[in-house]
């Protein structure tokens, strides 16, 4: 079995939309306009490809993204720099293969050279114990709860500290070049929308 994590391609958005809306009650629905907006603006939007088939996706955003999610805004009010995992979906035939951990390892690799915190939320109503346990074993801890406006469901707001970031900040972002090395795995994905304004180098 060959697994690859890569940036989504525009012609795959209909497939992503179908996966999202078949995922169940813990994943909020999308429409064509919303998934296209993610494609244009999300800093991290990658799919898992298993033997040539799209098996899932993960979307994550930086702190200055123009995004109106109540959970994203909760973090923005409290953290100067972070990557926020908006959603992760794995298609039913591919669950149990460890793709969630593969995605989170990749998202952590993206985040830890840019920000000190990786964040997300899990539903408590209905309680998703599989997701709660997964995040707890992956180093996340609860930093708050809220009732999502317009949805009426309680969520647990989670954060994971990224200790590698301090080294990257001091050596590169606040170093002589003020940027990461020019390596493919460190590059930002190309986006159609305007780039989000960034805080000073080092993200703090």
Automatic annotation (TrEMBL):
Residues 178-204 are annotated as: Disordered. CDD domains: NAT_SF. Its EC number is 2.3.1.-. The keyword Acyltransferase applies. Residues 3-163 form the N-acetyltransferase domain. This is GNAT family N-acetyltransferase. InterPro entries: Acyl_CoA_acyltransferase, GNAT_dom. It comes from Tahibacter soli. Gene3D superfamilies: 3.40.630.30. It comes from the Bacteria. Keywords: Acyltransferase, Transferase. One of its GO terms (molecular function) is acyltransferase activity, transferring groups other than amino-acyl groups. It is an enzyme of class 2 (transferase).
